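Re: that backbone. Tokens:
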């Protein structure tokens, strides 16, 4: 659903194009003039930049995806998805214009130059009018979110964590090969790999990965077994992983328990 490379500058805009703006978090009186499409865009970006994620998504088509989420679930999503999205929001959002045609609108947002995109660009944010309120996104994507409900972001985070862990295990085989070349064919445990500058501890930090990772070496260090289980089953992940030094990866939804396999031989 969400890919590990999603949170690029362009990726954030793709999400913003789907966002729907509902009632403001602090309430809007019946006498207050309806917000224009440009007002809606400004308020959403402001809430995201201030990390008021539930407020922000409650102003989007993702409102059904955050309604009813617990504080722990919001925290899981913050570290897995939302912080990365908020980091893509520029400090100043410059709106250069808007176009309204019936119940649809486009707001044009100027994005500042960055290292990856050295030229200033302008991107349209699409909105629809729903019940007299302008919301960002379209009806087709709104229907998808409504169907998924509160599982939308939760399942997206699970997919992201699982894909990232599998990718890490694939890379680990290469890291171990590099280490072994410099250590007479002996593989290294996590501390040794960090000490050799081949990886950092935060790569497998459960708080950011959603997984508990462990690396077990044979007595002669000529083989190893790596495993990972979700920190909170069905919240940060569903699949458990097992891999040996050959790079063979086993993955299974077994309720968050470690996968069983033969211990590495000496």
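Recovered sequence:
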């Amino acid at each position: 659903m969400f890919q590990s490379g999603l949170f690029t500058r362009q990726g954030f805009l793709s999400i913003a194009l789907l966002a729907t703006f509902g009632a403001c978090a602090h309430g809007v009186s019946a006498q207050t003039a309806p917000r224009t499409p440009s007002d809606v865009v400004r308020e959403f970006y402001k809430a995201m930049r201030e990390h008021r994620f539930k407020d922000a998504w409650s102003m989007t088509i993702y409102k059904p995806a955050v309604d009813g989420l617990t504080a722990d679930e919001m925290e899981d999503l913050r570290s897995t998805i939302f912080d990365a999205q908020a980091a893509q929001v520029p400090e100043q959002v410059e709106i250069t214009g808007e176009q309204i045609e019936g119940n649809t609108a486009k707001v044009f947002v100027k994005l500042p130059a960055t290292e990856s995109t050295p030229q200033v660009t302008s991107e349209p944010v699409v909105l629809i009018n729903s019940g007299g309120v302008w919301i960002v996104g379209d009806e087709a994507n709104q229907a998808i979110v409504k169907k998924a409900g509160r599982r939308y972001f939760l399942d997206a985070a699970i997919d992201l964590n699982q894909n990232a862990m599998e990718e890490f295990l694939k890379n680990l085989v290469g890291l171990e090969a590099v280490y072994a070349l410099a250590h007479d064919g002996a593989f290294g445990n996590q501390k040794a790999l960090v000490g050799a500058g081949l990886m950092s501890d935060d790569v497998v930090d459960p708080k950011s990965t959603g997984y508990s990772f462990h690396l077990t070496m044979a007595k002669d260090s000529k083989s190893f077994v790596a495993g990972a289980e979700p920190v909170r089953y069905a919240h940060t992940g569903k699949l458990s992983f097992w891999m040996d030094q050959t790079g063979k990866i086993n993955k299974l939804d077994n309720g968050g328990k470690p996968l069983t396999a033969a211990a590495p031989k000496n």
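The chain is about 35% helix and 20% strand. The chain has two domains: 9-149, 159-252.
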